Amino acid sequence: GDEDDWDSRPPVVTVMGHVDHGKTKLLDALRHTNVVAKEAGGITQHIGAYQIVTELDGVERPITFIDTPGHESFTAMRARGAKVTDIVVLVVAADDGVMPQTVEALNHAQAAQVPIVVAVNKVDKEGANPAKIRQQLTEYGLVAEEYGGETMFVDVSATTRQGLEELEAAVLLTADASLDLRANTEQDPQGVVIEGKLDKGRGPVATVLVQRGTLRQGDSIVAGDAYGRVRSLLDEHGNKLKEALPARPVQVVGLTSVPRAGDTFLVVEEDRTARQIADRRQARIRNAQNASARKRISLEDLD
Ligand code: GTP
Ligand code: NA
Ligand code: MG
Asked: Any idea which positions bind GTP (predicted)?
């Protein structure tokens, strides 16, 4: 489209790290710094993706955060080639140190050439040793700025809220220093599914991240092999939205089945087209499954 259609968009930040190092609690703490969240005050839904509005040098700046909890959406998305994140916040508990999933997470980020900000969490705890974390991570090529390297490390506590503003600032500074965050709001809407679930009351619900264009209520959408008309768009507070701009995570209600993490979605002109695309994809999946079932059977025959 037109040069004018390219607008700056918020950075999309994935929070990764070893189990129980405090990813979710840190995100909870960050969300409470958010004026918008306070105003909405509604029931927060766990969708694993949130946009907060922060302030840097007096300017309001939104940041989109994606949690990677027990479910392996990030790994699934990576495995399926979906590029979702601009920055990884690597959470390392200061009392526990670098652990296997810490290394796995930083390997993922480095392989995808995604800049890393290290949040050294739980600095409130007895036995916390933030200097040791910095030391340990140099072995993996993450050298703290104060040691002459290029990686921003921030000491934080999700419990006492120490360092949260510094962490937000580190994310924005990293974004400004190394990324060109623009998106075209006028293109055909596209994006990626972060998670899908079957809700008792609302049926299939997909949390999607819009990556380009503007997703609107009423749009005909194909997500993986699911399709449907967007009946409602909900933000992380359960508030209805009329539209979702790039980097906005949003829940989509109205699909006929549940898409999977890492599926891409697109918007088409007509419901019929959405259905045809979804049908073709379902047929492809069935064929692949049949083929692999046949292969299994013939391998078993050999035994
Ligand atoms: P998984 O999603 O299971 O991988 O865990 P997680 O990384 O999201 O950790 P979670 O936020 O669930 O926190 C794990 C535990 O650490 C909880 O009991 C938290 O209350 C605690 N915790 C998290 N952050 C802090 C912190 O800054 N200080 C202290 N003292 N405890 C913390
Ligand atoms: Na946990
Ligand atoms: Mg968690």
From this structure: 17-24, 67-71, 121-124
